[in-house]
Specification:
The chain has 11 helices and 12 strands. The protein is α+β, with helices and mostly antiparallel strands and 505 residues long.
């Protein structure tokens, strides 16, 4: 094989430095010139936009202060006057067109020969457009009247001063660039000669190591990077493989640690959100009974019932605390649901009874129409679902309003409805009310304690039970239509078949 001729490092560095200086000077000049052009264009666009606003203001003032007439008639009669006034205000040649593209006012300081037919149609559509030629720019903007666009204003702007300025800058960069290039090459040549001499010594030292002739002294003396390299070059070859292996292992461990931390962070956030709402359910019921006891403290039967229910809810809270502590110790951030056959009519009646105290405090009545339906689900999850729905129906109701809870079986599905006579949900908000933290009325949500998480958790829980949640407008008057939340859950036998199919998959 024929060996290619050797090219010295000194020559390569010299050529590289010359190319680098040339390209850098050219690129810097190009970027500066482009920046100047962009700046000039930006300032020109802003200036012309201000001129178009001045023209619109002048047109509106003339129209409002003059005799009332139709827009196009006004423009034809006063177009020449308006063009002259705008030209005096802006100091630019001005032409005004009507909506048919006919010139109705001309205030050109000198004749121009510019074809604007291609962009005139865009301006007639209400757009701001412009076109530039070798030494001028034509800017077209819509003129707005009292009822919309009534015409177009054209400004003719000369670019000769800007182009002359760019030519002067180009000549300046050319002279300066040549001077910098020559000076850089001279200094670079001297530096390259000194640097290549030091690198040659290091190359000779590396050749000795390759031939197993270890160094007895440093090939270079100095406190710079090449001096440090000459000191470490002997040990580098023997330690390089071990260092790379160590770095790869540390990188792998770091990736695993980061992935685990991210997973733990996501699990912790989900855990905190879930447990907060789990605690809220029994606390809401306890507070409702306390309010009821305050209202009817002379009713012994109610007091006994309230004590019993409060005791049950307190027991639930204690069990959840124990469960939380257990989950924390295992670093497990999810609840284990225990699915059992539940008769929803009885559960809904119990939940309605719990919430009647809060309903009474808000001046709301709760009515039920319950048909026994049996589903397969977790009692705690279903309790959380309907406590949230009942709580929303009460909070966003009106004094003297009502809440109706229904359960029935329809086409092999358990249908559970919670209807209210409250303020209703706007059509545009229905698609978002199940998003976390979204509230229809933020002021009212703050007053009632809503966080925007309840419906999101309800929907997620229902979907885990293979069910569906929907919301519709109630049948009330337009100013107070109310809302109907409908939950559809598989019946006990259908749910068992669905779970069996999932296991088979």
């Amino acid at each position: 094989m024929r060996r290619l001729p050797r090219i010295s490092l000194k020559l390569q560095l010299g050529l590289g430095l010359a190319i680098l200086l040339t390209v850098s000077t050219w690129l810097l000049s190009l970027l500066v010139l482009q920046g100047i052009e962009r700046q000039q264009l930006t300032e020109l666009e802003q200036n012309l936009l201000q001129h178009s606003e001045i023209a619109n203001l002048r047109v509106r003032q003339t129209f409002l202060l003059g005799e009332r007439m139709e827009d196009q008639t006004f423009l034809r009669l006063r177009g020449q006057e308006l063009a002259a006034n705008v030209g005096l205000l802006t100091g630019l040649p001005v032409i005004i067109y009507d909506l048919q593209g006919r010139p109705v006012g001309n205030a050109l300081l000198s004749p121009i020969d510019t074809k604007i037919e291609d962009i005139l149609s865009y301006a007639l559509e209400g757009k701001i457009v412009y076109q530039s030629s070798a030494d001028a720019l034509d800017y077209l903007a819509p003129l707005q009247g009292a009822s919309g666009q009534i015409g177009i204003v054209q400004f003719h702007y000369s670019l000769s001063e800007q182009q002359a300025f760019l030519k002067r800058i180009e000549r300046l960069f050319l002279v300066t660039g040549l001077a910098v290039l020559m000076g850089g090459l001279l200094c670079g040549t001297l530096f390259v000669h000194w640097l290549t001499a030091r690198i040659a010594k290091l190359r000779n030292a590396a050749g000795k190591i390759r031939g197993r002739r270890f160094l007895q002294e440093k090939p270079l003396r100095g406190r710079d990077e090449l001096g440090e390299l000459s000191e470490d070059i002997y040990h580098m070859s023997r330690e390089l493989e071990g260092n790379i292996a160590t770095l790869e292992e540390e990188k792998r461990k770091l990736k695993l640690a980061i992935g685990k931390l991210q997973l733990l962070e996501r699990q912790q956030k989900q855990f905190i959100g879930n447990i907060s709402h789990e605690f809220k359910t029994p606390l809401t019921s306890i507070k409702a009974y306390v309010d009821l006891m305050d209202m009817y403290d002379d009713d012994p039967g109610l007091t006994r019932q309230a004590h019993t229910q409060i005791g049950q809810e307190a027991q639930r809270l204690q069990e959840m605390v124990e469960k939380v502590l257990h989950l924390s110790s295992l670093e497990k951030y999810e609840f284990e649901q225990e699915a059992v056959a539940l008769e929803m009519g009885a559960l809904l009646e119990e939940l309605c009874e719990r919430m009647r105290g809060k309903a009474a405090r808000h001046g709301v009545t709760i009515a039920t129409s319950l048909t026994p339906v049996v589903i397969l689900g977790d009692r705690e999850s279903l309790t959380q679902i309907f406590i949230n729905l009942l709580d929303n129906a009460i909070k966003y109701n009106v004094s003297g309003g009502s809440v109706v809870v229904e359960s029935l079986e329809h086409e092999g599905v358990a249908v559970l409805r919670v209807s209210d006579t409250g303020i209703g949900i706007p059509e545009e908000a229905k698609a978002r009310i199940f998003e976390p933290f979204y509230t229809v009325n933020k002021d009212r949500s703050r007053q009632s304690g809503g966080s925007g998480l309840g419906l999101a958790l309800v929907k997620e829980t229902i979907e885990k039970l293979h069910g569906e949640l929907s919301v519709e407008k109630g049948s009330g008057p337009p100013e107070q239509p109310g809302s109907v939340f409908t939950v559809r859950l598989p019946l006990h036998r259908h749910r068992a078949e669905m779970d069996g199919e999932e296991e088979a998959e």
